[in-house]
Design a protein that fits this description.
The complex is a heterodimer of chains A (76) and B (463).
Chain A (H helix, E strand, L loop, with lengths): L3 E3 L19 E4 L2 E4 L9 H5 L5 E3 L13 H5 L1
Chain B lengths: L17 E2 L11 E8 L3 H12 L4 E4 L14 E3 H6 L9 E6 L1 E4 L5 E4 L5 E5 L1 H14 L3 E3 L2 E8 L5 E8 L2 E12 L6 H5 L11 E10 L9 E4 L9 E8 L2 E9 L9 H11 L1 H4 L3 E11 L8 E2 L2 E3 L15 H21 L4 H4 L1 H9 L2 H14 L4 H10 L2 H8 L4 H10 L4 H8 L2 H4 L5 H23 L1
Parallel strand pairs in B: 1-2, 2-3, 2-12, 3-9, 6-14, 12-19
Antiparallel strand pairs in B: 4-8, 5-8, 6-7, 10-11, 11-12, 13-16, 13-17, 14-15, 15-16, 18-19
Helix pairs in contact in B: 1-3, 1-7, 7-9, 9-10, 10-14, 13-16
The complex binds flavin-adenine dinucleotide and iron/sulfur cluster (2 copies).
One iron/sulfur cluster binds next to helix 1 of chain A.
Chain lengths: 76, 463
C-alpha cells in the first residue's frame, strides 16, 4: 500500500493532478497515471484536486495529512 | 519502468547525432534539430508551423498516440483569434456557430452578450488539431506521436539542449538548439528547466465535462454560463453547443473548494439532475476533464535554450479559462522571437525574454493580468451579489469587463452597492496603474466616486 492510491477505473487521464504535485512525483505515461510513492510528501493536493475522486490516501499516508480532504478518511 | 518524474541529473549527450534530413520520416533514433517542440496541442502545433515557415529544422513530439484526444477542453474559440493565427474555419472541425453568450444568475436571471466580439465556434478538437498538424507538416515540420519526453538534455553550461524521449519502449535523444515546452498543465519541460510552473490550488480550476447528445431547451447559437455557490463554487457551469443537440456540458470550480463529495464531477452531476428539462433525453458520449490554470501566467516562462507556451506557462484567461487561442497567439510570438534568437546564434534567456514582454504589453497578457484582479474580486461575491449584478448589468457593460475595461462597471457598482467599495479598492484599483493615459479620465472619476463612497461608509459606521 502506498501513500496515494490511484483508482484506475475512475481516472480519466486528465493529468490535472500532475500539475499540482509540489514534488513532481506524478506522471502520465501515455494514458496511464503513475505515482512514484517514495518522494510523496503526503500533502494531499492531488487528492483534493482530482475532479472525479480517483485518488485517495493510502495506508502509509503521512501524518501531515491535514487538508480539507481528510473527510476522505472518514468516508473510506 | 522508465524513470520519468523528478528532477533529472544533468545529462550531456556524447553520442554522435544524425541530423533530421529532409525526406526522412522521424524515428526513435538519436536526432538533432534546430527546434524541438514538446507537446502538440494548439500551442505546440502553431509553434511548429511558424518555426518551420522560417526554414528551421523542426521536430514536434507528443506522448499521445492520437493528436487531439482525449481533449481537456470545451472547445470554444473566437473568430478573431482564429483569424489572428491564420487558421481558416473548416466545416470538418468548426461545428457549433456561436453568436453570443448567455450568463445566468443563481436564481436563473439571464443577461445576454452579443456583438462581433462574441462570435466564434465550438470546434471538434481531435479534427482541429489534426488540421493544425497538417499545416505544420506541410510547412516543413516533422512530428512524432506516442513519443514522450522523459528527461531533459543540458549542455556543459547548463542550458537546455533537447530531451531524452521514449517511443514505444525505445529511448533516444533529441538534441535541439531551442526547446519549446508546449506540454500543457502537466508540463515537465518547465519544471526540469528550473522554471516555477507549479499550479497552486488557489489559482487552478478543477474542470470536468461531459460531451452529450440529445440536450434540449437552449439557444444553440449562444454559449451558456451558469453561476452560483451551489452550481460551481468560484467557477461556473457551461453549455457549449456543437449543433443539433450536441453540447459540451462542463464545470470548473476553484481547486481550493474541491473536497470529497463536492468535486467538480459531483457538482456537475447534481446540476444536471436539477435540470431535467434539458437532459432527460440526453446521453453522454465523452467524459473529459483537467486542470485550468487561472493565474494569468508563470513568473518566468523562458530559460537558456527553452521557452514555454500555452498552459505550460499558465497562459489562460483567468476569468473564463479559455486557453486555446492564447496558446496559439503566444506560440506565434515565441516563434518570431525564438527565430530571431536562432538566427543570431544566441538562445540565452535574455535573448528569448522579449517573447513574454511582447505578450504582456502588446498581446493577450495586457488583458489577462487585469482580469486576474477581476477574478479575485468576483471570488469575493456572494450569490446575493450575483443576483443584484444581474439586475444592474447589461451585456455591453459585461463585454467591457471581459475586455478588461472596468470604469463603467465600477461606477455602476458604487452607485448600487456602495458596500462593495472596500473590495473594489482592494482588488480592482491596482488595474488603474496598468491603464494607458487615455483612459485616465475615467479612472479619475472612479477615484473621486470611490473616495466619496468610502467617506459616506465611514460616517455611517461611526454613527
Ligand atoms: C474542462 C476544460 C474546458 C476548457 N474549455 C476551453 C474552451 O472552451 N476554450 C478554450 O479556449 N480553452 C478551454 N480550455 C483550456 C484549453 O483546453 C487549454 O488552454 C489549451 O488546450 C492549451 O493548449 P496547449 O497547447 O498549451 O496545451 P494542451 O492542449 O494541453 O497540449 C499539451 C500536449 O502536450 C502533451 N505532453 C505533455 N507532456 C508531454 C511529454 N512529457 N512528452 C510529450 N508530450 C507531452 C500532451 O499529450 C498534450 O497533447 C479548457 C480546459 C479544460 C480543462
Ligand atoms: S486528476 Fe484524477 S482523473 Fe485526472 S489524471 Fe489525476 S487521478 Fe486521473
Ligand atoms: S500527496 Fe502531494 S506529494 Fe504526494 S503525490 Fe499527491 S500532490 Fe504529490
Amino acid at each position: 500500500m502506498g501513500k496515494i492510491e490511484v483508482n484506475h477505473s475512475r481516472c480519466i487521464s486528465c493529468a490535472g493532478c500532475v500539475g499540482v504535485c509540489p514534488v513532481d512525483t506524478i506522471t502520465l505515461q501515455g494514458l496511464t497515471l503513475t505515482i512514484d510513492q517514495a518522494p510523496c510528501i503526503s500533502c494531499g493536493l492531488c487528492v483534493q484536486f482530482c475532479p472525479v475522486g480517483a485518488l485517495t490516501p493510502g495506508e502509509t499516508y503521512g501524518a501531515s495529512y491535514t487538508r480539507k480532504v481528510d473527510k476522505v478518511l472518514v468516508v473510506l | 519502468m522508465p524513470a520519468v518524474a523528478g528532477t533529472p541529473a544533468l545529462t550531456v549527450t556524447d553520442k554522435p547525432l544524425v541530423s533530421l534530413k529532409p525526406g526522412t520520416i522521424p524515428r526513435a533514433v538519436d536526432t538533432t534539430v534546430d527546434v524541438l517542440i514538446v507537446g502538440l496541442g494548439p500551442g505546440g502545433l502553431i509553434a511548429a508551423r511558424e518555426f518551420a515557415k522560417q526554414g528551421f529544422n523542426v521536430l514536434g513530439i507528443d506522448r499521445k498516440q492520437e493528436l487531439g484526444w482525449p481533449k481537456r477542453c470545451a472547445e470554444g474559440v473566437s473568430d478573431e483569434g482564429l483569424a489572428h493565427c491564420g487558421v481558416k474555419p473548416d466545416p470538418a472541425w468548426a461545428y457549433g456557430r456561436i453568436e453570443g453568450a448567455a450568463l445566468y444568475s443563481p436564481s436563473g436571471k439571464r443577461v445576454v452578450l452579443e456583438g462581433a466580439d462574441t462570435y466564434g465556434w465550438v470546434v471538434e478538437r481531435k479534427i482541429f488539431e489534426k488540421h493544425l498538424a497538417r499545416d505544420a507538416i506541410l510547412a516543413g515540420a516533422k512530428i512524432m506521436v506516442k513519443t514522450q519526453a522523459v528527461n531533459l538534455l543540458k549542455d556543459q553550461a547548463g542550458a537546455v539542449a533537447g530531451v531524452r524521449a521514449e517511443f514505444m519502449g525505445t529511448q533516444f535523444n533529441i538534441r535541439a538548439k531551442l526547446t519549446i515546452g508546449a506540454d500543457g498543465i502537466d508540463s515537465f519541460i518547465g519544471k526540469w528547466s528550473g522554471l516555477k510552473t507549479l499550479n497552486r490550488v488557489r489559482d487552478y480550476h478543477s474542470g470536468f465535462q461531459y460531451e452529450m447528445v440529445g440536450v434540449a431547451g437552449y439557444e444553440e447559437k449562444w454559449l451558456h454560463l451558469y453561476f452560483g455557490e451551489d452550481v460551481a463554487p468560484k467557477g461556473y457551469v457551461w453549455i457549449f453547443p456543437k449543433g443539433e443537440g450536441v453540447s459540451n456540458v462542463g464545470i470548473g470550480i476553484l481547486a481550493k473548494e474541491s473536497e470529497w463529495g463536492n468535486r467538480a464531477q459531483d457538482y456537475l452531476d447534481r446540476w444536471i439532475e436539477r435540470n431535467p428539462q434539458m437532459f432527460q433525453n440526453a446521453s453522454i458520449t465523452e467524459i473529459n476533464g483537467s486542470g485550468i490554470p487561472v493565474s494569468a501566467r508563470v513568473p518566468e516562462p523562458v530559460g537558456d535554450g527553452v521557452m514555454l507556451v500555452g498552459d505550460a506557462a499558465q497562459l489562460v484567461n483567468p476569468i473564463h479559462g479559455g486557453g486555446i487561442i492564447i496558446a496559439m497567439r503566444a506560440a506565434m510570438i515565441a516563434a518570431r522571437v525564438g527565430g530571431e534568437a536562432l538566427r543570431a546564434g544566441d538562445v540565452s534567456a535574455a535573448k528569448l525574454r522579449p517573447y513574454i514582454v511582447e505578450y504582456q504589453t502588446k498581446d493577450e497578457g495586457a488583458v489577462t493580468e487585469k482580469l486576474l484582479r477581476m477574478r479575485y474580486f468576483m471570488e469575493n461575491l456572494t450569490d446575493r451579489d450575483f443576483e443584484r449584478l444581474a439586475d444592474i448589468l447589461d451585456g455591453t457593460t459585461i463585454m467591457e469587463v471581459a475586455n478588461a475595461r472596468f470604469p463603467t462597471f465600477i461606477k455602476l457598482l458604487l452607485k448600487h452597492f456602495p458596500k462593495l467599495a472596500p473590495l473594489v479598492r482592494k482588488y480592482i484599483m491596482a488595474v488603474q496603474q496598468m491603464e494607458e493615459a487615455k483612459a485616465q479620465r475615467d479612472w479619475d472619476e472612479v477615484d473621486q466616486l470611490l473616495a466619496n463612497v468610502e467617506k459616506t461608509l465611514a460616517e455611517q459606521a461611526a454613527a
